[in-house]
Amino acid sequence: MSAIDIIRARAGAEPVQLGLILGSGLGHLAHAVQGVAIPYADLPGFPHAAVSGHNPNLHVGTLEGVRVAIFGAREHYYEKGNPAAMRPALEVLKALGAGSLIVTNAAGSLRPDIKPGDLMLLNDHINFSGLNPLIGEPTDARFVPMTEAHDPGLRAGLKAAAARLGIPLPEGVYAWYSGPSFETPAEIRAIKTLGGDTVGMSTVPEVILARFLGLKVAAISTVTNMAAGMSDEKISHEHTKAMAPLGAAKLERIIRDFLKESKFL
Ligand code: HPA
């Protein structure tokens, strides 16, 4: 059976409206969904996604009255060197009927006004990896415009939800750095000079794939630390996992409120 058939058999055939990819330490939101959790291991083509702090299940069901598919984990480029690792899973999301995707990540901040525990809505990104998930795609569809990759309508909806809740949601530029080593202070100074506001090891390939598939996409960083060289705090994956829940609670409230007012989907 294909992944789509398995999902329909276990979760019902009703179309999904929105996909949501959860970043490091943000898995809690998946458990709010009324529906079923399907292990990635049961779904052909789904990623390996074995980084600690992630939840490798696809949760399909209803959240705030919206039919959603929540990806509790992603495969990062740094795991196996495949920037297109999320392509089959996102193709399944599209085939299930979704028109929109929200991507979340844990990130370091380069802006003194955006601190650990804060959120940032991506209004653009910089691909510092030099990699692209569409390399090898043979059709002309590979020439994806990225001018308004981060969808203005979804962004407006998320901003409005944050404003209703009184949660600050500044906008900025996310820089994708391949990882898995963290950045050096010199790299962070370079990224800052070149216009990055947060830095992390994910999201950009998924945004490119979403646009390729014709999904509207928006992304939010949960800041877990100031980027390398910007504070005395030691940067580590343990720290990322420990800090992510701080922003995750705010993220959950914003996403729930956004879904309630889901005219932006
Ligand atoms: N750099 C890259 N990825 C990250 C960071 C960081 O400082 N924090 C959480 N994920």
Task: Outline the secondary-structure elements.
Elements: H1 3-11, E1 18-21, E2 34-39, E3 57-63, E4 66-71, H2 77-80, H3 87-95, E5 100-109, E6 119-127, H4 152-165, E7 171-176, H5 185-193, E8 198-200, H6 204-213, E9 216-226, H7 237-260
Parallel strand pairs: 1-4, 1-5, 5-9, 6-7, 7-8
Antiparallel strand pairs: 2-3, 3-4, 5-8, 6-9
Bound molecules: hypoxanthine (HPA).
Bound molecules: hypoxanthine
Secondary-structure-based class equals: alpha/beta
Per CATH, the architecture is 3-Layer(aba) Sandwich
Q: What order do the helices and strands follow?
A: HEEEEHHEEHEHEHEH
Fold-level CATH name: Rossmann fold
Helix percentage range: 25-40%
Number of alpha- plus pi-helical segments = 7
Mean pLDDT: 94
Low-confidence stretches: none
Strand content: 15-25%
Computed CA radius of gyration, to the nearest angstrom: 17 Å
CATH homologous superfamily annotation: Nucleoside phosphorylase domain
Describe the model.
It is a single chain. The chain is of the alpha/beta class. Helices cover 30% and strands 23% of the residues. It contains seven helices and nine strands. It has a five-stranded mixed barrel with strand order 5-8-7-6-9. The two termini are 30 Å apart.
Question: What's the gist of this structure?
Answer:
With 265 residues, the chain is an alpha/beta fold.
Keywords:
265 residues, Rossmann fold, globular, alpha/beta, 5-stranded mixed beta barrel, 23% strand, single chain, 9 strands, binds hypoxanthine
